Structure prediction request, 136 residues.
Amino acid sequence: MGEIKKPDEVEPEVLKELDEKLNLIADFIFTKSQENIVANGSSDTGFLLRSGQVIKTFLEKRIQYIAPHAPFIEYGTHPHPVGANKLVGWVRRKLGLADKEAMSVAYAIANKIRVEGTDPQSFLRNARDIAIQKYL
Prediction:
């Protein structure tokens, strides 16, 4: 097994090729994470999808979702109170329910969140795990 070298000790062509491979992997993970958001039904208004980006610098890649609710979707939440009035618009859009029925469903969902929290819908970690299987 060869020794591990510092980047400044590696041939520039090798580093360039490594950077290109890292770009490919980062793009794969990002695309897969976007597909997961859609497949999980985690996108309502499209804000989460639009908030994602890949930041690429030489030998460093970062995928981030800046939507405030991204970590709560990725990791789920502990039980916590939430007002049904904050959920009713989502219920109308996602379930296509009229006002009275939408409010009733929103109350039920708010109660479930208060008691159980929300389950994780891992869009990014799942994409990372798939990339590991594909590229390693």
User: Anything to note?
Assistant: The mean pLDDT is 95. The CA atoms of residues 5 and 33 lie 32 Å apart. The first strand starts at residue 52 and ends at 57.
